[in-house]
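User: Quick one: structure for sequence A, then sequence B.

Assistant: Sequence A:
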Amino acid sequence: MRTIPVNRSVEVSHPIAPYEDSRQIVKGQKLIALAKCICRVQQGLLDKSCDKPVEICFLFGSWGQHYIDQGMARQITVEEAPKILDEAEEAGLVSQPSNSQNPGGMCNCCGECCAILRGLNKLSRPAEVVISNYFAVVDPESCTSCETCIERCQMGAIALNEDEVAEVNLHRCIGCGLCVTTCSGRALHLEIKPEEEHREPPETGGEAMTMMAQKRGKSLTPLAFKTNSP
């Protein structure tokens, strides 16, 4: 998975790729299924769940059809999807699609329940692990010290410094933009990372799986042969 900015958090000073925009992702889908967040369900069974929305994760295309057929999700319209994204943003959830330009699904995650974010929170420099092209920046002159951004950040990347001004720890910031959309003083904005740090996701999920296998020193050729065998 990867992290993309929530809507309205990126200044339109540069083109935003469709695969970086949650609304463009859902807009381009022929079939959308809405499922319960498996991480929040799991944590609920352990009596560790948070108060965030549960039915909040998307599956697209054949992924979505499988979930619908198995009774694990319900189909929604393209018009309904942005309302779900609004709910996720208001609740302070991080949008995480699967790591391809045409993702098979997109989760909306919190740092308390999400297996991925909980794992990242244990790292001292999660920003080095996450596939994200943005980072948050504070204008100290506009900061009102309201601490809303601190509450919204799922990675503990923001704190007030000795001058009572919000300060972003870039080693922890994953560029989700949740801090930007509720900043009362408009002191926060997202900036795109330098070109040499910019990462473009693979075009398809298959390419993403192949890339991950190669990095692990594995080959998917035996699996492909088995799948295509009569």
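Sequence B:
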Amino acid sequence: MTATVCVAVVGDRATAELMVGMLRAHGIAAAVSTDDAGGVEVALQAQGVRVLVGSDDAPSARRLLDEPPAAKQPLNRLQRLLVRLLGGSTG
């Protein structure tokens, strides 16, 4: 069993859960750690919500978390039509 290390501290549980999901999707075991009474006392998250991984996975996790988001792909014809039908802008 390896020690756990913190690879990120964010301001809310939702962001931390998204990060954990992304790490898990890449095969890295990850968990959220915060002292917010199981989500009941949201104000306690002001201390930060931590994303934890095993020390062996920490370099890979940090690399994944530091990657910039993929470039936005242009909409195809069907997507543009749907956006217009729903009243949006394809801009």
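The chain has a mean pLDDT of 84. The longest helix spans residues 13-25.

User: Thanks, that's what I needed.
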